[in-house]
Specification:
6 helices, mainly alpha, 93 residues, 2 domains
């Protein structure tokens, strides 16, 4: 998603839940934002690259530390899969 879309949505958000789960607002306003889904030939269905918990943050920080900040989503997903302790997102109770 583009930074401009996020910045625009942030200014329009009034619901605290939208501010916490940013993409929720975008999906709830498809008339204002272009949503595209994509498919991959690789097994990335279990890979979470979102940051919702401290464990998610730590995993992404480790990926960026290893690969640098100029990394594609495919590279990040591959790195997350390669390290079993990062591979699956922790379930929040």
């Amino acid at each position: 998603m583009r930074t401009a879309a996020l910045a625009d949505a942030l200014q329009k958000m009034q619901d605290v839940a939208d501010q916490e789960h940013v993409t929720r607002y975008l999906y709830r306003h498809p008339d204002q934002y272009r949503i595209q889904n994509f498919a991959s030939d690789e097994p990335f269905g279990e890979v979470q690259l979102s940051v919702d918990t401290q464990a998610d943050f730590d995993a992404i920080a480790a990926i960026l530390q290893q690969a640098g900040d100029q990394i594609t989503w495919r590279q990040a997903a591959t790195l997350r899969l390669a390290n079993n302790e990062w591979a699956k997102r922790e379930t929040v109770a």
